[in-house]
Design brief:
The chain contains 2 helices and 24 strands. The strands form 5 sheets. Strands 1, 2, 3, 4, 5, 6, 7, 8, 9, 10 and 11 form an 11-stranded mixed β-sheet that branches. It has a 5-stranded mixed β-sheet with strand order 16-18-23-20-21, with no helix packed on it. A 4-stranded antiparallel β-sheet has the order 17-24-19-22, with no helix packed on it. It is elongated. Helices cover about 5% and strands about 35% of the residues. It has 3 domains: about 190 residues, no CATH class; about 45 residues, no CATH class; about 140 residues, Jelly Rolls, CATH 2.60.120. The chain is mainly beta. The longest helix has 8 residues.
Length: about 400
């Protein structure tokens, strides 16, 4: 399987999952016998890779990717490219040793276990790289299997890369472009672990499984587990986007901010711990667990009147939810599970609005909980909230 991370990184230089089918390892694609091959382009364009960085790891495929910016003009003036070293398991019997990048499985992107690419950061209407270069010749020596510990220790020798088209939507076959570009990357000595360059704390703290290490330049993945202790912040702070954040004042129902009907307010869940979850996942409420950062508002509603609750203008990376609890005192929220959630919404994805309507049968004070399906280190953000009589 070829992970779609190869394509995602090609498009956004980010990590994702998925799968890509490959030809059987012992049957790499062969040229058509009755077709004269195009003349190979001369590799006259000098190019080199900049500072190498970790890209992604997918244990399901498995695959691991490192990346670097390309220096050298591989396209029209102003075009930029990203160099990638992609490694895939289940193809070669071993990923240690010296490999000819132009032979066997390595001869085509659809079948390679060791895939070296230069991909344009410009994309087409389908989000695919406008231009791609794939290994044409050269060799790589791996002294450690890159998949075992996600550690790249390699020497690349005499690397040449030629312009190709790639069937991103189907077979992932790479086909040389007639009279296309060809670049000489030369030799490289590489040694990089699985820790991104932006992480400024010692590498042993990255995904150590025991603590969320904050203030380290980028978010430690351990922060995505809401049960991990937080290092680098005070007892009253949470880590979000590698920054220690203080909880908003309306963190609980007891400190809920009063809403005026028809008047939108802005707020944020950044820095708020998870106080409310059990009881919000019911079918009459949000329908999903709510383990994220939450803040609370309160509003007086009349019986028999229809109201719209609208959570809008969310940060693009924030997948928020909203629940309505009541009527009664703030202690309703202290029940575990909460037994009085009467309506809610958690249907959209990141940046999407959450809107529902509700007609109370009992007048009183209701509590609007803004929450999230994902834990505090993974999801939080700003929003606009309004409760309006219809």
């Amino acid at each position: 399987m070829r992970s779609s991370v190869a394509l995602v990184l090609a498009l956004s230089i980010a990590a994702c999952g998925g799968g890509k089918k490959k030809p059987t390892p012992d049957a790499p694609p062969q040229p058509q016998a009755d077709a004269a091959p195009d003349a190979a382009p001369a590799c006259t364009t000098p190019a080199s890779a900049g500072t190498i960085d970790f890209g992604s790891y997918n244990a399901n495929t498995p695959d691991v990717i490192w990346k670097a910016p390309v220096t050298g003009n591989l396209g029209a003036s102003g075009e930029t490219f990203t160099y990638q070293l992609q490694f895939y398991g289940g193809i070669e019997t071993s990923l240690m040793g010296t490999f000819d990048l132009s032979a066997g499985n390595q001869a085509n992107f659809s079948s390679c276990a060791i895939c070296l690419l230069a991909l344009s950061t410009d994309v087409d209407a389908n989000g695919r790289p406008v231009k791609a270069y794939f290994q044409k010749s050269g060799s790589i020596t791996l002294t450690e299997d890159p998949l075992t510990n996600q550690h790249l220790v390699a020497t690349v020798s005499n690397l040449q890369m030629q312009e190709v088209t790639i069937d991103w939507a189907g077979t992932f076959m790479s086909t040389p472009v007639a009279n296309g570009g060809c670049a000489t990357f030369g030799n490289q000595t590489l040694d990089h672990d699985k820790v991104p360059n932006a992480f400024t704390c010692t590498h042993d703290k990255w995904t150590d499984g025991s603590s969320c290490d904050c203030m380290c330049g980028m978010q430690d993945p351990d922060c995505f587990n809401g049960s991990n202790a937080i290092a680098g912040c005070t007892n009253n702070e949470l880590c979000f986007n590698s920054t220690c954040e203080t909880a908003p004042a309306n963190d609980t129902c007891q400190t809920a901010v009063a809403l005026t009907l028809g008047t939108p307010v802005t707020g944020t869940t950044i820095g708020a711990p998870n106080n409310y979850n059990a009881g919000l996942e019911g079918m009459q409420c949000t329908k999903y667990a709510q383990v994220g950062s939450d803040v609370v508002y309160k509003v007086d509603l009349a019986a028999g009147t229809a109201y719209q609750v609208a959570l809008t203008m969310l940060d693009a990376a924030y997948d928020g939810s909203v629940a309505l609890v009541g009527p009664g005192a703030a202690t309703l929220c202290d029940a575990n599970p909460i037994a009085t959630c009467v309506a809610g919404s958690d249907t959209a994805l990141e940046g999407g609005d959450e809107i529902f309507t509700f007609t109370p049968t009992t007048a009183g004070t209701y509590y609007v909980i803004v929450d999230s399906f994902l834990p505090p280190g993974a999801e939080a953000g700003a929003f606009t909230l309004a409760v309006t009589a219809m």
